[in-house]
Write a structure and sequence with these properties.
Number of helices: 13
Shape: elongated
Oligomer: single chain
Strand order of the largest sheet: 22-21-18-17-24-23
Distance between the termini: 95 Å
Strand content: 25-35%
Largest sheet: 6 strands, parallel
Number of strands: 32
């Protein structure tokens, strides 16, 4: 036998928005031989209970409800009746006919709830946050609607607010799941393309309203409400996706901060579709084979460069819709360019796996080793084609850069300065000439170099050549390939006008051909032979260093010579491992790159395991065996 009593303090708690268990009073309640239906409808002038056929949904009888207490609370006692299927009908500001959200049972899987309660929702379990939290379209008791669920420790009341209820936290309070800090509510009906948030009332009386961190879509910034939407896109990259993990390829990444890469004629950042077309053409032309985005998960503040993530499952609305983001990735893939997302601000494996699957990412930048291992476990063999370990070798890059910032007359020994850096032939970390090194008024790599104008660019060519030839994957931050002096502030567009100057156009051409060299020489991209010792053997004499990078075959080996001094060195004895003839295949001192033109001409013949070459001042050169 069930008892129900309509208490005035509970009615007041509902109308004040302080009730922590709305299902205790709202909805249908059996009491002996009668039943009550209660609803809080503050925008209605009148309300009715419509009894319907449970199987067909056809109306049977309409009961008028009485408004009691505070405005908007309606009730009706239906005598001599058990529970039945019904809808609510309202008149007034928003006349409607709808299923009562408080007539449904739990809309979440109790198994997933217990995983959270028991702590079995860790990154190595089969728990998926989007199967429980946030907003999910479901069918409950034959009725289509949306299940909302949030874990809110410390909250006494949590509500769903949105366009569909006037953003009134009193209208759709959620039910606390017994013995937990989780709140859930099923709202029937079509809520697609409507905005929503959650509102929480805490024990101290403070109220907070926040967007759904699990949402897949957000309204256009600067608004930050979540949006219920269905993601539908027809991908055309099947051939790319099938072959991307089947061959070993160099990893040469172009890192971008999308809002400041380029602006349109009106001064606004390019949207996803515009950026995809322009950036794919540029990246392809420059010889990079991956583009890496600074975080594009929905973020709070433009000053945070995307790292202050608020919606980890949604591409930021600033530049378009999720499907337009998909189209951008699709376009990059059509040009043979992989897409990487910087996700160091995300700690959830489900989220990272979701992005890889939903948006066809080819890699993610993470720095936490435990997270990387967990992601690999989650992805299984399906993730073999995805780069999950793209950690930056910041110490090595900083040490080499700092050495190049020293005036040449004071540089001393390169090997002493970089002591402790393991130059490993099989290094697969990312040598990132990244935004980190040019942000916060640090200036560009060009501005970091010492000396006069010509020496700065000679040193800059040497720095980029050296880092490209040392082991490891490669990354260059946008704009640094132009050789401009401006750093990165997250607000100012790249100064493309610097290409009007010879020094900058020469340097851009240098980077383009250096990328081509890296792409065509398997020795440079680490796809070489498995040697007994993998440490790089760097020879140093004075201010000149040399070393060999081993290819798939001895004929694929390349020999690197770097002169860090201000004097040309002639007759430098470069050790080689194979007899025969050699020639210089690349030199930063070439006239076409803005150099002095003192690079080596013709062929060099090996004698006693060496060839004699010229090492021009502040230069980088590559030699190869002539077959």
């Amino acid at each position: 036998m069930e008892i129900f009593v309509l208490k005035s303090d509970e009615v007041a708690a509902i109308t004040r928005g302080t009730h922590g268990n709305p299902h205790h009073i709202l909805g249908m309640h059996q009491c002996l031989n009668d039943c009550y239906v209660n609803a809080y409808l503050p925008r209605a002038t009148a309300a009715f209970v419509l009894r319907i056929n449970e199987e067909t949904g056809e109306p049977i009888f309409k009961y008028p409800m009485t408004e009691i207490g505070s405005q908007g609370f309606f009730t009706v006692k239906i005598e001599d009746s058990g529970a039945f299927a019904y809808k609510l009908i309202t008149e007034g500001e928003q006349a409607a006919e709808f299923y009562d959200p408080y007539s449904f049972g739990y809309s979440v899987d109790p198994v997933n709830v217990m995983k959270v309660v028991n702590g079995d929702d860790g990154i190595l379990s089969d728990f998926h946050v989007k199967d429980l939290f946030g907003a999910r379209q479901i069918t409950l008791d034959g009725v289509q609607g949306v299940s909302f669920c949030m874990n809110m420790p410390g909250a006494t009341r949590v509500s769903v607010v949105g366009d569909f209820n006037g953003w009134d936290g009193r209208v759709n309070p959620m039910r606390r799941i017994d013995y937990t800090d989780m709140f859930e509510l099923f709202i029937p009906g079509d809520l697609m393309n409507t905005r929503y948030k959650f509102e929480a009332l805490y024990r101290d009386g403070n109220t907070d309203i926040f967007a759904d961190p699990y949402a897949e879509v957000y309204e256009v910034a600067p608004g930050n409400a979540s949006v219920l939407a269905k993601l539908e896109y027809s991908w055309s990259d099947s051939s790319y996706m099938k072959k991307r993990g089947s061959v070993s390829a160099p990893v040469n990444i172009y890192e971008v901060h999308m809002p400041t890469w380029k602006r349109n004629s009106d001064g606004y950042p390019l949207n996803y579709l515009e950026f995809g077309k322009e950036a794919a053409m540029y990246v392809k032309n420059m010889g990079y084979n991956y583009i890496q985005f600074m975080p594009l998960m929905e973020y709070r503040d433009d000053n945070g460069w995307g790292y202050d993530t608020v919606g980890m499952f949604a591409p930021t609305s600033r530049f378009g819709t999720p499907t337009e983001f998909m189209a951008m990735v699709d376009h990059f893939h059509s040009k043979g360019i992989g897409v990487i997302m910087d996700m160091v601000s995300v700690r959830d494996v489900d989220c990272i796996a979701y992005w890889i699957d939903t948006y066809h990412l080819d890699g993610v930048r993470l720095e936490d080793e435990e997270l990387i291992r967990a992601l690999r476990t989650t992805l299984g063999t399906a993730g073999d084609a995805v780069m999950t370990d793209l950690r930056w070798n910041n110490e090595a890059v900083s040490r080499v850069t700092d050495f190049m910032m020293i005036p040449p007359v004071n540089r001393g020994s390169f090997m002493d300065y970089t002591c402790g850096i393991p130059f490993d032939e099989k290094d697969d970390t990312v040598w990132a000439l990244s935004h980190d090194e040019v942000a916060y008024e640090r200036g560009s790599y060009a501005s970091k170099m010492s000396g006069g104008y010509e020496d700065k660019y000679a040193d800059l060519r040497l720095l980029f050549g050296l880092t490209m030839s040392l082991p490891g994957r490669k990354l260059t931050f946008m704009g640094q390939e132009l050789g401009g002096f401006a750093g990165f502030d997250g607000r100012t567009q790249i100064d493309w006008s610097v290409l009007e100057f010879d020094a900058n156009s020469y340097f851009q051409k240098y980077i383009k051909e250096l990328n081509k060299l890296y792409d065509t020489k398997n020795a440079l991209c680490g796809d070489g032979r498995d040697l007994a010792g993998s440490a790089l053997d760097i020879q140093e004499k004075g201010q000149v260093i040399s070393f060999v990078r081993h290819g798939l075959d001895v004929a694929d080996d390349v020999y690197i010579v770097c002169n860090f001094g201000l004097k040309n060195v002639t007759g430098y004895k470069l050790p080689v491992e194979t007899d025969g003839k050699y020639r210089e295949i690349f030199s930063s001192d070439n006239l076409k790159y803005g150099g002095e033109g003192n690079n080596n001409k013709g062929y060099k013949t090996a004698a006693d395991g060496v060839i004699e070459v010229c090492a021009p001042a502040l230069s980088f050169a590559v030699f190869a065996h002539v077959k």
